[in-house]
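Protocol step 4 of 6: record predicted structures for both targets in the notebook before any analysis. Target 1:
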Amino acid sequence: MPVTGMTDPARPRDADDVREAVAAAVARGTSLEIVGHGSRRAIGRAAQWDTTLDLSALSGVTLYEPEELVLSARAGTPLAEIDATVAAKNQQLAFEPIDYGPLLGETRDGAPRGTIGGMLASNLAGPRRIVAGAARDHFLGFSAVSGRGETFKSGGRVVKNVTGYDLSKLAAGSWGTLAVLTDVTIKVLPRPETEETVALFGLDDRKGVEAMIRAMGSMGEISAAAHLPAYAASRTIAASLAGDRAITALRLEGVLPSILHRQHILEALLKPFGEVSVLAEGPSRSLWRAVRDVTPFAAAETGAARPVWRVSTAPTAGPAVAADIAVRAPAEVIYDWSGGLVWVLLGADLDDAGSSIVRAAVADHGGHATLIRAPAAIRATVPVFPEHDAVTALLTRRIKQNFDPKAVLNPGRMYAGV
């Protein structure tokens, strides 16, 4: 966890308090760590800040129009509250925000701790990303305070907004280094009536990814595709069905007649890969929650000291990336996004958390890698986020300079000196 808190945390009650806190930090020349509930606090470089700006009091849904598929909330609103609010109207956040609690060992009483602001600032999506897009694709607008101590707004409450540059896309994935979000507006979508999962058992990684790619190119309208080798499958609800075998899972969502029709399409298509099984709605939801939250690699299962990497690559390259890593170090993997997202669990005895190994494999096959879990001492010395080329690094610094010229907001969280 980053070294923070040289002074007592600042706990603003509203957007005006946030502006005053940032302006005071600018005047003093001090830095701020931006947190909501701290569920992603252990992700990123382990840097040192002067004061923590705790946004947890900025909570509550401020507008919800189910008919317009729009919701606005203060940035510190718990995701659990957002989920409950939209679920009551049979709606959902379609990109399936991840709960990092199990992976980082920070879950309390089984309830997710993340906030809507932290979720958008990290821009990390779950299995439905392959059809619904990332968090930024559902981010309609926001109010925020820049590192200059100035309040500004971007976007609005409609899906199409052509009033200027879409700063929502820039804020998403900036990890609080450009501005402090105070209020956000997002798009919600109808919740599918039901779901099931079509599953194959016993395929190796390459065959599993091949099956997923073939299914994704079909008329099956698949909303999620993942392959869990046997060691990962054994730590999920599907263990009793999979036995000691891998599971290749394809989720179907919608109304039941449509699901049954698409199930038959997949059964015929995937027959060459082996016998197809079906997980009903309850086990299906549990399986995809495990894939979303990477619970087979949870700290309670594997130990918090074992590094976890998130590798994004082309689906066809996923098995090659994993194989290259496994040649150089013992590794366990999970494939999501039809093979395009590879979660990699390495041993705790690697001095650099496997950074040189993982980044070499990515360089050979394409994509980018982010270190999600590692001890603070390692995160302070190795690159955590994808490394930039010279041009992108210069652009990143210029953007930071424009929004936060005094380096007040989360300096060093993503990149050293930025």
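Target 2:
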Amino acid sequence: MTSQLNVDTIVDKAGTGGANVKVANNAVAVAEGGAATTNVVQGLVKAWINKPSNGASINDSFNISSLDDDGSGDFGVHYANDFSSTNYCWSSGCDDAATTDAVTNMDSTNGGYTTGSTEFETYYLTASQNRTNSDVYSFVSVVGDLA
């Protein structure tokens, strides 16, 4: 028999604040109009990072255990929790205070991607600019099924 719990707010048993809530792999969120649903677990970003394009430092991140520095603008992102397969999807971007012609892409020549890491490169579209400019920041987010 199924059951339903109707509440407005869930708080800890002391009534002082938020509570830990677990949802199953089949939990769904209903769209604003009510006609569509989204799987909550599959719809979450599983890893993200914000970093300067030069060096192996991290400004902020989620589910990233470490970086490797492969040279000017080249870096590898290593996940704290691996993906179940290489069928995950990443999205990247970058920001340069001086110009708008820099990009961050997956680097297939330096290892590409595995279930535990993805290699990226950040570079300018014009050859006259240096890829190691510390004013360039790379942003990457990753979605997919964790192992």
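Step 5 preliminary note on target 2. Residues 47-143 form one domain. Strands lie at 28-30, 37-39, 47-52, 60-62, 64-71, 74-79, 89-96, 102-106, 117-124, 136-143.
Proceed to step 6 after PI sign-off.
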